[in-house]
Amino acid sequence: MNRFALLALLCTLSLPACGGGDAPAPAASNPAGAATAEPAAEGEAPAEDAEGGDAPEAAEAAGDAPAAAPPPTGTDGKSLASERQGSKLVASIKPVTNGPALGEETARTTLPMETSKSSIEWVALKNGSAEVKGKFTALAGSLSIDAKDLRTATGEIGIDLLGISTGDEARDGNIASIFFGSTKKEPVHGQFSVTSMRPEKLTLAVGETTRAQAQVGFNLGGDAIGGVLPFEIERVGTDYWRITILEPLTVGIDEMGMQDRAAALIKACAHESIGNGITATGTAFFGTPS
After folding, report:
1. Element (H, E) at 262
2. pLDDT tens figures, 130-159
3. pTM, to two decimals
4. 8 - beta bridge partners?
5. What's the farthest any 2 CA atoms get from each other in the chain?
6. Complete DSSP assignment for 144-209
7. Domain ranges of the chain
8. What is the pLDDT of residues 196-224, one digit of tens each?
9. Helix, strand or coil for residue 268?
10. Which CATH code, of 2.70.70.10, 3.30.565.10, 2.40.128.110, 1.25.60.10, is assigned to 80-99+108-287?
11. Cβ atoms within 10 A of the Cβ of 267, count?
């Protein structure tokens, strides 16, 4: 399967097909800038050492008080916030690299996704501002995780692109067959994967949560793309985990190389236009409730 930047893990799409009665989309707002990371607390992942010269005089006046930890950085020295453009995935980002050393063994357990509680939802635009909301209804996946070291976590969610629900059966069929090219005779599957993780805490007790930056891949039947996304991880039970995307994931039709399919959908449904993007959100549960 193609790797790309879940989980849902959850989603918002720009794949409106034939259907009516869609409400205009609300105006988008820019998210606030990323805050500076606080010093690591007990049980949190160790901060990476920073190089540099002498501290400025103003800092010396602070005495022995510990300096605030710098925001987490990627392998090229950039802050993780700068590695993304808004909520859009940036292709070809270097991997998150604060996990165990190459060859180091970890005690990971592979847990199946609880499909009845997991979801990937999306929103798409047609004819300028009309929203089409939907979700993927046929998901399957797994999470490999070491409860003593969350940096080792990886996961994968398969998406059956015939499983689409927008509340309009005809539109569902058009999106599946025309845009995704998926039919009962020749089904097409998408994928969401997490390939590396940078959590704020290395381990969680039952009931605790932490945030993490994760290297992800995403594919909906076109070109696979990758990037860094923020997640929340909750240890719901001893072997039961929830992972949620914290910021909507927006993927462009151009980025996925699906312009011809979008044009075919516009023609088949007599649309004026469809939006150039898929915005997705999602939550996935893995394991068995205790």
Report:
1. helix 259-269
2. 899 999 999 999 999 999 999 999 999 999
3. 0.67
4. none
5. 72
6. EEETTEEEEEEEEEEEETT-EESS-HHHHHHIIIIIS---SSS--EEEEEEEEEEESBS---TT-E
7. 80-99+108-287
8. 999 999 999 999 999 999 999 989 888 98
9. helix
10. 2.40.128.110
11. 10
